[in-house]
Design brief:
alpha/beta; Arc Repressor Mutant, subunit A; nine-stranded mixed beta sheet; globular
Length: 389
């Protein structure tokens, strides 16, 4: 039977100083007159009140400010959103509030102000510590600014921080990838997001592809970096996420466990379970900040609102859950999708036969090392239709 899972809030702040050539997120270079912070804050709060109507009586477990570059917004605005969200919906006692930040936009004392506003976790977009690679990625910061930002985090007693780091960068060697990771680990983050640079459709890099390491070199980087992270005590709990024990990102875990989330802001997506009527609703806001701001009614900010079909629910659950090293069990599948276990039993058996999935003693099915390496193939076995041959 379909049950309401934990609830999160995602807030999209779409502006950044400059669009990076690899970025396919809904982000936009700063307008000449600067961020329209007051107008956007008013629109967000109106959007929040509208979205919260579908989640009465459900408490937030996490709030995530993503972008763009959320650290372009003032601590006052961030605090106002957190305050209104908690007042409108309620929150668990140890609510996780994450703010993405660019090292090139952090001013002295800024993190202390964010902490006072309710932020207790920061995700810092380092990407690399090598000046040549930072330039190739179009980043606006240098290595020293990342180091200074980490010092600011510690001064603000924000030790629960994540570092974003890329590998397989243009003309990067294995030794350079390991050196980047060594410098990141030396800073002692609670969490590391370590992911391969890919050429995404619609980006500047897709239009003018840089020279990237070949597939074998990229895989060698992945394996060597995973070993380095493990030896430093970071647990590999998701495809590209590593954490010190107990420091996993609660917000992202809720996504991957097929939890619910409200999405407000230009281009934000949401997923809400209506357990009473046995359905799951997905939503999306209009992508262009100008259109989002111009809406005179909350419904005018909606670009999409649809019920997820039963067959798609099963696939979407597996698409997310299979990213986790912990895998999933029958009870969570049935409660999050409202579908009987028989919906995916055939696909699970087929995946196990191929060595992509394994059953654990705790009743969970989790990707094997082979399944993790060929994750797309494993996920495709759960597409609607008969189990893969």
């Amino acid at each position: 039977m379909l049950a309401a899972p934990p609830l999160s809030l995602y807030v999209h702040l779409p502006w950044c100083v400059r669009k990076c050539p690899y970025c396919d997120f809904n982000s936009h270079a700063l307008p000449a007159r600067g961020v329209p912070e007051a107008a956007y804050l008013a629109a967000l709060l109106d959007d929040l009140d509208y979205a919260a109507r579908d989640c009465e009586g459900r408490m937030l477990v996490s709030v995530f400010f993503g972008g763009g570059t959320p650290s372009l917004f003032s601590a006052d605005s961030i605090g106002r959103i957190v305050e209104c969200a908690v007042r409108r919906l309620g929150a668990i006692a140890d609510l996780e509030v994450t703010l993405e930040a660019n090292p090139g936009t952090v001013e002295r004392g800024r993190f202390a102000a964010y902490r006072a506003a309710g932020v207790n976790r920061v995700s810092l977009g380092a990407q690399s510590f090598d000046g040549r690679h930072l330039a190739a990625l179009g980043r606006i910061h240098a290595r020293d600014e990342t180091l200074a930002a980490v010092d600011e985090l510690r001064a603000a007693k924000l030790d629960n921080f994540n570092l974003d780091l890329m590998y397989a960068l243009p003309e990067q060697s294995l030794d350079e990838a390991l050196a980047d990771l060594e410098q990141a680990i030396a800073l002692g983050p609670a969490h590391l997001s370590h992911y391969q640079l890919t050429l995404e459709p619609g980006t500047a890099f897709e239009r003018r592809p840089p020279r990237l390491p070949d597939e074998d070199t990229a895989y060698a980087m992945q394996v060597a970096c995973q070993a380095q992270l493990a030896s430093a005590g970071y647990r590999h709990y998701e495809v590209s996420a590593y954490a010190q024990p107990g420091r996993e990102c609660r917000h992202n875990l809720n996504y991957w466990r097929f939890g619910d989330y409200l999405g407000i802001g230009a281009g934000a997506h949401g997923k809400v379970t209506d357990a009473v009527h046995g359905r799951v609703i997905r939503s999306a806001r209009v992508k262009q900040p100008g259109r989002y701001l111009a809406a005179t009614e909350p419904s005018g900010r909606l670009d999409e609102l649809r019920e997820v079909g039963a067959a798609d629910l099963a696939f979407e659950f597996c698409l997310n859950a299979l990213r986790l090293r912990e895998g999933f069990d029958a009870a969570s599948f049935e409660s999050r999708t409202g579908q009987p276990w028989s919906t995916v039993a055939g696909s699970v058996a087929a995946a196990m036969e191929k060595g992509l999935l394994a059953a654990g003693p705790d009743g969970r099915w989790a990707p094997t090392e082979l399944g993790a390496r060929f994750l797309n193939d494993l996920q495709a076995m759960f597409l609607p239709g008969p189990a893969a041959e």
